[in-house]
Amino acid sequence: MSGLSSAHPVFVALDTTSREKALAIANAVAPHVGGLKVGLEFISALGPDGIRAMVATGLPVFADVKFHDIPNTVAGAVRALAPLGPAIIDVHAAGGSAMMRAARDAAAETTPRAKIIAVTVLTSLDSPGLAETGVAASPLDQVVRLARLAQGAGLDGVVCSPLEIAAVRKACGPGFLIVTPGVRPAGAALGDQQRVMTPGEAISAGADFLVVGRPITGASDPAAAARAIAAECAHAALS
Asked: What pTM did the predictor assign?
């Protein structure tokens, strides 16, 4: 497992059921990104062997599994997943402190030791969507609340939209990882994302790592798209 590097903050989201397509994209963008993100579509189709194949590329892998279950079940899932070599595994902060602590403790028992981060509020949710679930708080307030809960449970960081980066950084400090999806280059289609920023804006706001999918994987030249986003991030980091 390669180490995480803030100098290469972009994780490309390989949302595909094709191992061959995922490897082709990974190899094309490898010089320009800091890692690969594999989620439920990829893992449901390709399973542990698919994760092993991505880890074998030498890039850090973020296993975006969003575990959300009783503590014992989540701990068992982390014990099963972590030895495959992902650098990052996520759980849902809404599962509560006991569940997050169970995930943290399970990761500490395995080698290599994956970082455990918590999903706060999905980037597809806006205030009305959150209210439908019975949460009266704004997305910003709910994200900060869950980020503090995750930090108190001993997790390494959180996933939040770009719009909450600054508030989470203020609430949780500089040592807490912030991983940010919902990143779209200027002029790109938003798709199903509601709370977005450009890559440069997200880095300037304080994100550690960005998850970027369709703007790279759907581009006619994924390597060129990844290179442009990496350059924008590097410029923002120096500003």
From this structure: 0.93
